[in-house]
Structures are given as structure tokens and as C-alpha cells.
Design a protein that fits this description.
single chain, two-stranded antiparallel sheet, 5 helices
């Protein structure tokens, strides 16, 4: 996945190592070779998303796709979603919520806050791969400011 000639970095916020491995395996199986930066803590992920990366690129010059679990040990995924979407510099970032929660009110809340896709684990990985591919297509046809 590329935006404006730049590679998109996939930020995976998932505290369950087994789920993280399965997610990455199926992303790779779908033919997506983008860099993936994993986090088990929401606070560390937010530091990365809002901060400067190793190449000294700021959030304004990086292209990120966020895979977000809602049930994290240090904070709620809902809080992470709210913070990303409330920030002028990050509100455009696409967020795929991947979680075990299938509560309709929580799903609606995620969409209301700006989530692009909500997938319940255990994941139908063909559906997940299609969602990731669709976001790749989304990236290819829009210009992210």
C-alpha cells in the first residue's frame, strides 16, 4: 500500500501475541508487505502515532494504517480511537478495529468516533484480507493531506 508515492506503515495495537501473529500472517498471505510496527500497549502506540519516527518523519509526513484492539492492558481502544480522531493531524488516519467484542452499541460507538472498519475476532481472515485490500484501494485513490 502506498500513498502519494510513500509506503504506508501498518501500526498494530494488539496485546495478545497469538492474535498479533495470526493477523500479521494473514496480512502477509494477502500479499501486503508493508512495514508493520506492533504495540502491546496503547500508550506506546499513541507516542509513536503522535511522535516522530526513527526516520525523523512527523505524524504530518507519515502514512499510517492503524489496526486497533479495544481490550488493552493499559487503556481502552475506544480512548485511543477518540484521541486519534480528535487530533487535527491524525484524524484522517484509517483505523481498523479488530476485537473480540461484538456488542452492537460498542460497534456503533466505534463507527461514530470515526473507525473505518470493525472486525470481530476470531476473524474471518478472508474478510479481514479483503478489508485490508479495500483500505489499500482507498489509499491509492485519495490524497491524504
Amino acid at each position: 500500500m502506498r500513498v502519494a508515492g510513500e509506503d504506508v506503515t501498518i501500526v498494530m495495537i494488539e496485546d495478545d501475541e497469538g492474535h498479533a501473529r495470526l493477523i500479521e500472517k494473514n496480512i502477509r498471505r494477502a500479499g501486503i508487505a508493508n512495514e508493520m510496527v506492533p504495540f502491546t500497549l496503547g500508550s506506546a502506540a499513541l507516542d509513536y502515532i503522535f511522535g516522530v519516527n526513527i526516520d525523523k518523519k512527523t505524524v504530518d509526513t507519515r502514512h499510517l494504517l492503524i489496526l486497533l484492539d479495544l481490550n488493552l492492558p493499559d487503556m481502552s481502544g475506544i480512548d485511543i480511537l477518540e484521541q486519534i480522531k480528535a487530533n487535527e493531524r491524525t484524524k484522517h488516519l484509517p483505523i481498523v478495529v479488530l476485537t473480540t467484542t461484538d456488542d452492537e452499541l460498542e460497534i456503533q460507538k466505534c463507527y461514530d468516533l470515526g473507525a473505518n472498519v470493525y472486525i470481530t475476532k476470531p476473524v474471518d481472515y478472508d474478510g479481514f484480507a479483503n478489508a485490508i485490500r479495500s483500505l489499500g484501494l482507498f489509499f491509492s485513490i485519495i490524497q491524504i493531506p
